[in-house]
UniProtKB/TrEMBL annotation:
This is IclR family transcriptional regulator. It comes from the Bacteria. NCBIfam families: pcaR_pcaU. GO terms for biological process: 3,4-dihydroxybenzoate metabolic process; negative regulation of DNA-templated transcription; positive regulation of DNA-templated transcription. It comes from Pandoraea aquatica. GO terms for molecular function: DNA binding; DNA-binding transcription factor activity.
Amino acid sequence: MTPATNDTPDATDKKPGDSYVQSFARGLAVVKAFNATRPAQTLSEVAQASGLTRAGARRILLTLEALGYVRSEGRLFRLTPRILDLGFSYLTSMPLWNLAEPFMEALVQQVQESSSASVLDGDDIVYVLRVPVRKVMSINLSIGSRLPAWCTSMGRVMLSALSDDELDAILRRADLRQHTGRTVTDIDTLRARILDVRAKGWALVDQELEEGLISIAAPIRNRGGQVIAAMNVSGQANRTSAAEMEAKFLAPLQQAAQKISQMVVV
């Protein structure tokens, strides 16, 4: 990405008029410039990744360093563990996930496969809880990890709860790339599958995101019946086929999701 000459975020970003705090948005852009493939970066690299000028990126990096969220090592900058405080602020403000963890642990013990919970954020799912039993993905998933909603079981559960207009908007702007030979990239076929999830109340994705990975998901609802999150059971195709996963894991998964839904207070 070429640094913006006016030191502003992407012009396509949604800015709610005078209430938009541009400096705060720039700070978030700098934080998000760091990831697993770019854990340590020079000032120029941060500026390029965040779309800011070098001067703007430098001011923000020095501010974050003064606050303890960034540290410098020669020419390189990297995030510090204190940045986790920002994510945990969300998790601690949602006590549901503390209450949900024992149910997910019990589910994992019962099915002997990993289980995760996520919420929908824009076009992606964001992991908020994960109880692994063994490594099933080459992707390193942890709390805060993001995956495209359209090709994941939890994502399709949450997309199925949207209105038709909202669903269509997400599918139109999604990057429908071919992750595996099984990935559904035709928008009409994909929409039909999501509508099928809406009718059934659960989703199964068979090796569309990663070869060998099968995942089945069910919704977590609030007291009004609205889908607020989803949870899944994921396994490997060489151990459990899609049909076996539905036969063995769907009922206990739905029971666990129902118990967690009953813990939602609003």
